[in-house]
Amino acid sequence: MTSPSSFNVSGLLGGVAGSIDTTTLISQMMQAQALPQTMLKNQLSAQQTALSAYQAVNTTVTAVQTAAHAFTDVLSSVWQSTAASSSNAAVVATSSSTAQAGTTIFNVVGLAAAQVTTVKAATDGTVVTTPSNGITITGADGTAHAISLTSGSAADVAAAINSAAVGVRASVVNVDDGTGTGSTIPLLQLNATATGTKAGFTVSGFDDPAPATITQAANAQVGVGDPAAGGYTVSSQSNTFTDMIPGVTFSVNAIVSNVAVTVKTDNGAISDKVQALVDAVNSAANTIGQTTAKGAVLQGSYDVTSLQQSLYAAVSKGGPGGTSLHTYGIDMDSTGKLSFDATAFAAAFTKDPTGTQAAVNDFATSLDTVSTGAIDPTTGNITAAITSANGQITDLNTRINDWTPRLALIQTGLQQKFNAMQTALAKLQSQSSYLTSMLKSMSSGSSSSSSS
């Protein structure tokens, strides 16, 4: 009988202790254990995608509501939009919704000016010999501003005036000294910070020669004819007039005569608002179509698909009495896309402003009703869908988070079991080596005895 020469425990266990990849085994087992959490994460991703789609719809429908409010809001003045124009480029006019249509003709007889006063310095650059006395700047309203000085130099006086902030700014300019030699002397220049007579000023406390005002403060002035014979003048502290024609603001920049400022209804501004409403509907319908298309996240969502149909119905309904919106430049093609013809709108508005206003307002009201039904903060269908999606996302996140410590415990348990198995395998491997050594020793001794 042949004696065994070795005893291989690793053959019985399928591998030596160090060759088992416990990391991969545990990872694969944890993937199986984490399947419930993975399914929850997949649900969360789907719900987040749906929420984004609902929010996109909500955004575009809000734009429809905003555009509709330009016509339905009780404070809206879109139909009172006006445009002001001037017959002369020297006068630039704008108007608000409170301006009345009409033409005003006037002359620009004066422009506003800011006072400029200069003070010549002595050869050593001083303008105040006794700075301890300070200087005084008195405004047109009689208010006197005493300004303290630490030095009488033109530069230091300018700095003191600027720091005082009394409606006058000062600077030092180096000018010819009058000798014809090219030499210069400093000149203190005082400028009113605003135009008009109310910004005028006087100064005192400077050395001789006395300060010289080279530009008098002046108001802008427009007028017609002789005020003593039924004419009028209107003055402004600046070159902008805001009260002369109610609702109209105009600026003047030259002396000119017979300027005509005309105010008309601004058909272009009204047309732009209608265009914005049409564009908003197209954007909303396009977004709804994308999110409810075959395979899209909101496919089959009744709230969203019915919203699109309601938007189209508002167009199909037409104006009061079933008047086609095509008459007013609003149309819809076979794909559901709206279009707006500004020329047709302008023609209809010129021919029948009351009817055009009624038709567009009715259209806007229908769209306002549809959009409000979808996005109202309390009762809106889309609002409810967004609220529900947010709630489900919160719940899913909670459930996913609950699984995290549970999986951590399972992984810890598996690691402990495999560590124990590794320890046991290492022990068996050691015993296997010992037995193998003993068997070899016994085999060698048996062979020696046989030889004897």
Key attributes of the depicted protein:
452 residues; alpha+beta; four-stranded antiparallel β-sheet
How would you sum up this structure, described in words?
The chain has 452 residues and is α+β, with helices and mostly antiparallel strands. The chain has three domains: 9-81 and 266-436; 82-111 and 220-265, no CATH class; 116-215. The protein contains nine helices and 17 strands. It has helices at residues 9-13, 22-33, 35-72, 154-164, 267-292, 302-317, 342-351, 353-375, 381-451, and strands at residues 82-86, 91-95, 102-110, 116-120, 135-139, 144-147, 168-176, 184-192, 201-204, 212-215, 220-224, 232-236, 240-241, 248-252, 256-265, 330-332, 338-340. Strands 1-15-3-11-12 form a five-stranded antiparallel sheet, with no helix packed on it. α2 packs antiparallel against α9. It is flat. The two termini are 18 Å apart.
